[in-house]
Amino acid sequence: MTIALVGLGVSTSQNVAIGPAYRLERGPMPSSPRLIEPNEVAAEINRLEQALSASQGALKAIRRQVSRCAPGSPLSLAEFIDSHLLILEDAALVEPARDLIRAQLFSAEWALRQHRDDLARIFDEMDDPYLRSRLDDIDQVIHHILGFLTPDERASKEPESEICGCVIVAHDISPADTLLLRHRGAVALVTEYGGPLSHTAILARSLNIPAVMGVRHATRYLRQGETLVVDGEAGTVIAGADYHILNHYRQRLVALSARRNRLRRLLHEPCQTRDGQPVELLANLELPDDAQLARANGASGVGLYRTEFLYMNRSGLPDEEEHLAAYRLAIRGLGGIPITIRTLDLGADKQVDGSLSANCPPACNPALGLRAIRLCLKDPELFRPQLRAILRASAEGPVRLMLPMLTNLGEVEFTLNLIAQARRDLAQQGLPFDPAMPIGGMIEIPAAALCADAFARRLDFLSIGTNDLIQYTLATDRIDDTVNYLYDPLHPAVLRLLRMVIAAGRRQRKPVAMCGEMAGDRRFTRLLLGLGLRQFSMQPGSLLEIKELILEADATRLANQVDDLYRRLDEEPAEDLLAALNRLP
């Protein structure tokens, strides 16, 4: 019998996968206590220590595979694994469990369970939904340790030969497991929990693994070894498919392969619309090693180079020379195409440990607190080494500097004064830099979008960060499963802000790019072209798909059609208007 289960699809350029189900058993938390004798306390604590050490070793082994196996992610893949390593290294995770073993004579498994429940009560009382959601990370870490507390189960876990070519079915999958499973040849993921904006979903998209998440009771209905069809675009999982259904999806797989080959042929085509308007396709980069991926996919430059990796998971701050070494590595890897380096953007969903944490203490609402340019301007001594390093890097190749999360012109003026001082100091020291290095800003707060003309007059370029702009405009946390249904790129308010920023750039004769996820989503390419956007920055894997649409588009006709769409925004659903626009020739 054929059954179809529905969840939340994680669409990739692959979209479809077919393979036998591999049920990944991670085992539940122990549900009843196991007590030990007083003379067993030392041995039980030793069991806990050994499991902790084994779990750390396993994650570090996965961590070493990151840059080789998973380039070009929208977030630092190392950050996912490192965050779990930091939890494992935190005394607050294991010391209370040790105390419970000593005081209550609990087994290591039950002590971990009890401590987890205590933490859950603390997290449930937190007001901030992002912080509440971090309990998932703690659960995943504790499950990882529990696996090593049951060595027979761990020893029998999935060998690589069994996973290769399989669809993984699980209650939930951690980012670290996702990376390891992909490395072992898994072709798709099906989970009972999670959503398209979770860390695991973002990672799956980066690794080009079709996935369907939030499939309730998947582990109950999907049997080990049965053939599954996973459609990440539709968000469906089909089991027991008959010949006609399987044949349909096999043909789709053939078509997808042919399409990838066709897209590769566009690599060296000039990127311009049918009516001859040039468009720049830029890449978003996470790490210096990703530069090769950008060039391989035909990027004409880098529209966003994130620098947060330099600050993550360390006790001290990076100095000027460490910054410079990372920027030089990326510049040389790009072979002469320009790079836009965004200054430190920490806070909210990108937290730190060590020295920097003293500069950004916990906030009631991190997304609205001390982060990004606010943090840097609060402590100029934190900011100066990065500004100097970016200026020095500009002597190595074409570099642009970009400021995140601007709210008012005072922040721009303060930063420009710091940069002017850095230029004077470098000149006095005889250190080379490009005195004409362009300086731009990200428009990702509604206040900045409404004042885009003023920002464009003072800066050399603007870049729209749609992820945060949508979130702040709609007061919706995009990673909070309880409200992220409100996260809507097609909300009329969002569309009007986008039009306002692009028009401001045109009036002030300053280039405007877009580096948020909308830029790499083919649903919005024609709309953005019609609005006048001519610089799209995205994950390298999306470049050729977007280029295909640009080559087929008539930008002049689209401008007229988009004008009509905006006139009708208050009369018809934006989704219907966009669908009609995408159907037009």
The gist of it:
With 585 residues, this protein is α/β, with parallel strands linked by helices.
Structure in words:
The chain has 585 residues and is an alpha/beta fold. The chain folds into three domains: 1-24 and 166-265, 3-Layer(bba) Sandwich (Glucose Oxidase, domain 1), CATH 3.50.30; 40-157, PtsI, HPr-binding domain (Enzyme I, Chain A, domain 2, Orthogonal Bundle), CATH 1.10.274; 269-583, Alpha-Beta Barrel (TIM Barrel). It contains 25 helices and 16 strands. Strands 1-8-7-3-4-5-6-2 form an eight-stranded mixed β-sheet. Strands 9-10-11-12-13-14-15-16 form an eight-stranded parallel beta barrel, surrounded by five helices. Helix 9 (175-183) links the parallel strand 4 and strand 5 (188-191). It is globular and about 75 Å long. Residues 67-76, 152-159 and 348-355 have low confidence and may be disordered.
Enumerate the spans where pLDDT stays under 50 for 5 or more consecutive residues.
Answer: 67-76, 152-159, 348-355
CATH topology of the largest domain: TIM Barrel
Number of continuous helical runs:
25
- Rg is 25 Å
Query: What would you say the CATH architecture of the largest domain is?
Result: Alpha-Beta Barrel
Q: What is the name of the CATH class of the largest domain?
A: Alpha Beta
Please report which band the strand proportion falls in: under 5%, 5-15%, 15-25%, 25-35%, 35-45% or over 45%: 5-15%
Average predicted confidence as pLDDT: 85
